[in-house]
Structure formats: structure tokens, C-alpha cells
Design goal:
- It is a single-pass membrane protein.
- This is SPFH domain / Band 7 family protein.
- Its main location: membrane.
- The chain has about 325 residues and is α+β, with helices and mostly antiparallel strands.
- It has 3 domains: about 20-110, no CATH class; about 115-125 and about 135-245, Tetrahydropterin Synthase, Chain A (2-Layer Sandwich); about 250-310.
- Helix content is about 40%, strand content about 20%.
- The strands form 5 sheets. Strands 7, 12, 13 and 14 form a 4-stranded antiparallel β-sheet that branches. It has a 3-stranded antiparallel β-sheet with strand order 1-5-2, with helices on one face.
- A hairpin with a 5-residue loop joins strand 9 (about 125) and strand 10.
- Helix 1 runs antiparallel to helix 2 and helix 4 packs across helix 5 (about 210-225).
Length: about 325
């Protein structure tokens, strides 16, 4: 769903610029800077044409130095967003040593694949007055988010999101701090998803625990919808932690154990009834013994007790008539 555009706002799309190789401009800049002193010295002893030569030498030095500001080295899977006095001019994605207009302002944007865990916090790097990094950028471990599932049960959930920048212009100009934007919107999408599904389900209904692949695909699509305007592509979103909240974990464990016991007993009873039926048919087919209704009922009762009991039975041998 498209958002309304406010008056005066412009939506920026990426324009890729194929920059020149930097070795030629580097050689020309060095040549200008090296040749300039000879031109100045020649102008000092040239008589009437001296000021012209001196001015030319000074301009050569200035041109050579200024031209060097257009040189830049771009590593693989990195880019430079170019601005000319605040106006977006394009993005250089070509890796290597390149040269652009020296008056461009260059902003670095990484195109590499990144990942983070929801609930984690990032501490930016700190520098001293001399610009030396005193504390590098760090990220804390992810802390699960506590939310209520569709049935109102408090649960803890967190996810790992893998993403990368695909449109550098949107990433820089459509949102403020696109890295923080990705983290906040991913957390919001995860919380919204957790409230739409139950933690567990005993039927074919989708649940957070039972439908892992479908839930993860749904989470990835939800995050992508929220990040569409930020020039970011979500490659994968996987739930990394899922559990009941501590205050109800014990009660839910008992419920799960009771459900497992009931399911096991149901299977045992089904098997025991089948075995009793087979025994009666076998006795009747081979004429081993003739049983009346009371004896059949007693035999069925004894067999079911033996087969369904969770303890070893103690046989009682009848010695009388």
C-alpha cells in the first residue's frame, strides 16, 4: 500500500554511476603538482611573462591537489553515494580504484549481507578528541521479547533476521538511520506475528511451535513489507528462541505431559482391544475352549487389565473347580 507523499518531498531511487578508473587522474595530478615548481621557477626569471607563468604554476598545484580529492578506493560489496551540494547525483558500486568529481560528497554504504537477533542492542563506537577509536562498535546478546500469543499465553520469542541494502538512495534518504530502522521494524513485525498465532495447537491449525517453516516465511514477508521504503531486502527470518514465559512454564509443562500421557494411553487401549479380539477369535476358531458370556467377560476384563496396566500384574492361579 503506497503512502501519501507530503508536499515538497521527493522519492529517491538509486542511480548507478560508472566511475572512471583512478590511475589516469592520479598520474595527471602528480604530474601537475611536480611540474608546477618548475613553472614557478621559470616564471621568476622570465621577465614580462613571469607573472603569467607563476600564476599558471599556482593553478597547476591547486588543480592537482583538488583533483586528488576525487580519488577513492571501493572494496567489494561496498558503494559510495555521491552528493553535489546536497543534491543526489548517483551511486558508485564499482569496486577498485576510481575517480569522480572532487566536489562530490561521498557517503559509504555497505552492500554486504548482515544479520542481527531481535532484542539485541548496539553500542556505537566512541572516539577521543584526536579521532582515535577508544571503544569499538559492539552489540549485546539478543534478549527474547515477551508477548502474549493469540490465546493470551505469555511467551518469549526472538528471531534472527538476515538482510542487505539493495537501494542505497532509499536507505540514506527515505529513512533516518536505516540500520536502526531495520532493527525496530523487525522487532515490531515479530511481536505482531506472535499475537496472531497460538503457541501450540493439537489440530491442523498453524502454530508458532508446530508450523515453523510457514511462520518463518510469514515473518520474513511481514518484515519485508515494513522495510519496502528503506531500500532493504530481507533474505531470511528465523525464530531463534521460543518458550513459555517463566511464570506459566511449569503449568504448561504439566499440561503437555498430561496430553502426552492421554495420547499414549489411547494408543495402548486401542492395541489392547485389538489383541483381546484376536485372542477370542483364535479360541473360537480352533475350538480350544468353550466360553459362556460370563467367562468371556471375565477373560476380556483380565486381558485388558494385563495389557493396559502400567505395572507388572501378579497372576492368581485358581486351583479349585
Amino acid at each position: 500500500m503506497s503512502q501519501p507523499t507530503s508536499p515538497g518531498s521527493v522519492h529517491h531511487h538509486e542511480k548507478v554511476i560508472d566511475a572512471f578508473s583512478g590511475w589516469g587522474p592520479l598520474g595527471i595530478s602528480i604530474l601537475l603538482i611536480v611540474s608546477a615548481p618548475f613553472c614557478i621557477v621559470a616564471g621568476a626569471s622570465a621577465g614580462p611573462n613571469g607573472p603569467t607563468l607563476i600564476g599558471t604554476g599556482v593553478l597547476m598545484i591547486v588543480a592537482g591537489v583538488v583533483a586528488m580529492f576525487g580519488l577513492m578506493a571501493i572494496a567489494p560489496n561496498n558503494s559510495r553515494v555521491l552528493l553535489l551540494f546536497g543534491q543526489y547525483k548517483g551511486t558508485v558500486k564499482r569496486s577498485g580504484f576510481v575517480w569522480v568529481n572532487p566536489f562530490y560528497t561521498k557517503k559509504k554504504v555497505s552492500l554486504r549481507i548482515r544479520n542481527f537477533e531481535t532484542g539485541s542492542s548496539t553500542k556505537p563506537e566512541t572516539k577521543n578528541k584526536e579521532g582515535v577509536v577508544t571503544q569499538p562498535k559492539t552489540r549485546s546478546a539478543g534478549k527474547p521479547s515477551k508477548v502474549n500469543d493469540r490465546d493470551g499465553n505469555p511467551i518469549e520469542i526472538s528471531a534472527v533476521v538476515v538482510w542487505k541494502v539493495v537501494d542505497t538512495a532509499e536507505a540514506l534518504f527515505e529513512v533516518d538511520d536505516f540500520e536502526n530502522f531495520v532493527e525496530v521494524q523487525s522487532e515490531a513485525a515479530l511481536r505482531s506475528l506472535a499475537t496472531r498465532y497460538p503457541y501450540d495447537s493439537r489440530d491442523d491449525e498453524q502454530s508458532l511451535r508446530g508450523s515453523t517453516d510457514e511462520i518463518c516465511d510469514r515473518l520474513r514477508d511481514d518484515i519485508q513489507d515494513r522495510l519496502e521504503k528503506a531500500g532493504v531486502q530481507v533474505l531470511e527470518a528465523r525464530i531463534s528462541h521460543l518458550a513459555y514465559a517463566p511464570e506459566i512454564a511449569a503449568a504448561m509443562l504439566q499440561r503437555q505431559q498430561a496430553s502426552a500421557v492421554v495420547a499414549a494411553r489411547t494408543k495402548i487401549v486401542d492395541g489392547a482391544v485389538g489383541m483381546v479380539e484376536m485372542a477370542l477369535e483364535h479360541l473360537k476358531r480352533d475350538n480350544i475352549v468353550e466360553l459362556d458370556a460370563a467367562q468371556r467377560a471375565a477373560l476380556v476384563s483380565n486381558l485388558l487389565v494385563v495389557l493396559c496396566s502400567d505395572r507388572h500384574t501378579q497372576p492368581v492361579v485358581q486351583t479349585g473347580a
